[in-house]
């Protein structure tokens, strides 16, 4: 059974912390493994035993619904037990540091930690303080690697390859961890990337990441193969980045008219949760160009791939079965 | 009459532009003579191949006593100062309660006397409770020993309050120390705003936040005739502004820290809280400008900006940990590596930034080996190679990014008022 076989030699990391540090080969390795899991699933093979006997901890120091559910399901599909941790009402509220909290959970026999945290870099700090594998499920405004990977997977599924595609990331680039993971992943796999949004939401020196910058969605629209509509994160904004939601939607919202002016096969992605009527109108969200629900489905397989590969690498590293 | 002879050292006294191998004779705690001495002395210290210079002075040190003794006490801060070669330090007023009244300043003086290590000069708060609303009792603070006023790491946001502080403090001939970072631009920031803040997803603090307050403070120095001291300058623009102000004859001084001379914002890539400082570590172009400012005297002094924090306070999420590192015990070798070894500063210039510069800023009669001066002397072994080991710090805190660095040069012997208060083990 292909999915139960050894992982390719191109993957040797015990952690998935971000797409910045991964090579194109490593990213492809994850996507290929995810494709194997997806194939098995369509063949009805939904219960695997790769993680049998291990426990995956979901450490969500910040609330999440879809990512947490997706990781839990991915772990269970691989045969693992899961244990959930949520910050609200936990010992964190009694003053314990997040490192101590994680160490305690590790001490209960958890060997893979899926970590979501509102502070950028928190999973990196944990990876240095734990023996467990750490998978970043979103850290502050830094990276959200599995979301980036599922976006890549979804585009690849519909286009076969990312090489030479033009992809726009539209919206709040400044506060978006999804944007950073997307930029690294898309660039490494050969896509042209344009970040587009109000000037106040474009991070300083972002062009050094190899992207182009635009503040005119209508001007770039005809060139795009894919558009990824990032959520406007009102909760992250400490001051006025744009005058009103109405004005934002007017300049940067995706509506039926804009879809018609784009390429016929324009792919529309959104990491969600989406604000209907802001980043995109309902007819676009539910229309034929939208692959938003494909993204959610694919997230499961990408996360299974990350869990399996890191577990296998960590086991090899400890002298376990090769 | 007790006498102590420092024999055959390289005597560097920037106050008198002296750099020569010779002897220093100390009689009853004061410098008696600098020059070849063949007479008798009760005690002789052989200083061959060592540097004999005035005791080093740091203009602003976080002592954190009272209120935060888990970080540092007067005893541990002054012990750390001696181990770093410092004989005088200015004590930041950001304690709990803050040093915004006469009794609080007297407490600092009393604790320093009890510790009996280096000299401690209290800095008084500019505003009551550092709240930036109303002036603290500046006159009574000065009468109780305060040599300067500052709200420490809290920028004085109101130009009106800063103006009145500069005008009022003129009566006591005390400078106002400013932390020049516009708080509306740095709110929530963790690091320098630039490429690396974008890559790391950490909220940035733009260099412009410094330029804006430096510009304002220079304008207010001109308006009021008061003395402004700009702490921890970190940007190219600030250096240029200060240079122009000095050329215009304004009473503006400035200092830099060793970490802003050696580390860049790229260090934050490790997400280690040991690199979280305020102002933030900048990019390489700024370091170049800071060194040029030290070379031409635009920047008068180097300060460790010693900010001790107990391990549990630094062992948290990056956006929750306090800003700052300990620096008293690492300043000398880090600066030798950054400034003297590459030839940016001569030893004479370097020692000036640690003696005459800070003495002038604080307005204290220290920082010289002139005959008659109290014998505050630091003897430095410039070639001593060692590895920085935070577990051996005298400071109660160990928050430093320099642990493990292979360095050269350290204070070997330190005298305060002619008395040997520290010898390296």
Please give a quick description of this structure.
The complex is a heterodimer of chains A (322) and B (425). Chain A has 322 residues and is an alpha/beta fold. In chain A, 39% of the residues lie in helices and 15% in strands.
Detailed description of the structure:
The complex is a heterodimer of chains A (about 325) and B (about 425). By secondary structure, chain A is α/β, with parallel strands linked by helices. Chain A has helices at about 25-40, 65-75, 100-105, 120-130, 145-160, 175-190, 215-220, 245-250, 255-260, 280-285, 290-315, and strands at about 55-60, 80-85, 110-115, 135-140, 165-170, 190-195, 210-215, 225-230, 265-270. In chain A, the strands form two sheets. In chain A, strands 7-6-5-8-9 form a five-stranded parallel sheet, with helices on one face. A four-stranded parallel sheet of chain A has the order 2-1-3-4, with helices on both faces. Chain A is globular. The model of chain A is unreliable at about 1-5 (pLDDT under 50). By secondary structure, chain B is an alpha/beta fold. Helices cover about 30% and strands about 25% of the residues of chain B. Chain B has helices at about 75-85, 100-115, 140-145, 160-170, 185, 195-200, 210-225, 235-245, 260, 285-295, 310-315, 330-340, 345-355, 355-360; strands spanning about 5-15, 20-25, 30-35, 45, 50-55, 55-60, 85-90, 120-125, 150, 175-180, 190, 205, 230, 250-255, 300, 375-385, 405-415, 420-425. In chain B, the strands form three sheets. In chain B, strands 1, 2, 3, 4, 5, 16, 17 and 18 form an eight-stranded mixed sheet that branches. Chain B has an eight-stranded parallel sheet with strand order 6-7-8-9-10-13-14-15, with helices on both faces. Chain B has a two-stranded parallel ribbon with strand order 11-12. In chain B, helix 1 (about 75-85) packs across helix 2. The radius of gyration of chain B is 20 Å and the shape is globular. Chain B starts with a strand and ends with a strand.
